[in-house]
Amino acid sequence: MAARLNPLGTDVGPKLVRHLVATGRAVTDSSLPRATQELVKIRASQINGCGGCLDMHTKEAAHAGETPVRLNLVAAWRDATVFTDAERAALELTEQGTRLADAGDVTDEVWEKAAEHYDEEQLTALVAQIALINAFNRLNVILRQPGGDYEPGRFHA
C-alpha cells in the first residue's frame, strides 16, 4: 500500500504536525499514566483502522515496557483480566469519544466511571489524548499512511 501523499513534503504538513505534537506534549507531561496514554492511542487507532498509528504506538508502548499480553488484548479489553479499573474506564471513554458519530455523545455513566479514577487534570489530559489521536488517525487514514516500518523513538528527537 502506498500513501496518497507525503504531508511532510509539503509546506503546511510539517507545521501542522509540529503543532499537533506540541499539543500532545501537554498530555505527555501530565499526570495521566503513560500506560493509559498509550492504551488510549492504540484503542482509538484500532477503531479508526489506522495502521500507521497502530504501528507507532504498539511499538512505542512495547519499547516503554508494556507487555505483549496487554498489547494483544487491547481490542478485547472488556474480556481481558490484565487491565485496571482505571484503564478500563479510560478505554470506554476512548471508545465513546472516538465513535461520536455512532452514538452522538459520551454517556454520563462512562464519564462518571472515568471521574472515579482520574482527577480533573488527568481527565483533561485524557480527553485531549482522545481528541489528538483521533486527529492523527484521520490524517493518516485519509492519506493512507501505511504501518509497518516505524522505529521506536523516531519522532522523539
Report on this model:
This protein is an all-alpha fold. It has one domain (33-143): AhpD-like (Up-down Bundle), CATH 1.20.1290.10. 66% of the residues lie in helices and 0% in strands. The mean pLDDT is 93. Residues 14-95 form the Carboxymuconolactone decarboxylase-like domain. One of its GO terms (molecular function) is peroxiredoxin activity. This is Alkylhydroperoxidase. InterPro entries: AhpD-like, AhpD_core, CMD-like.
Secondary-structure topology with pairs:
Layout: H1 12-28, H2 34-48, H3 51-63, H4 68-73, H5 85-98, H6 100-103, H7 108-117, H8 120-143
Organism: Nocardiopsis sinuspersici
GO molecular function, one term: peroxiredoxin activity
InterPro entries: AhpD-like, AhpD_core, CMD-like
Question: What's this model, at a glance?
Answer:
This protein has 157 residues and is mainly alpha-helical. Helices cover 66% and strands 0% of the residues.
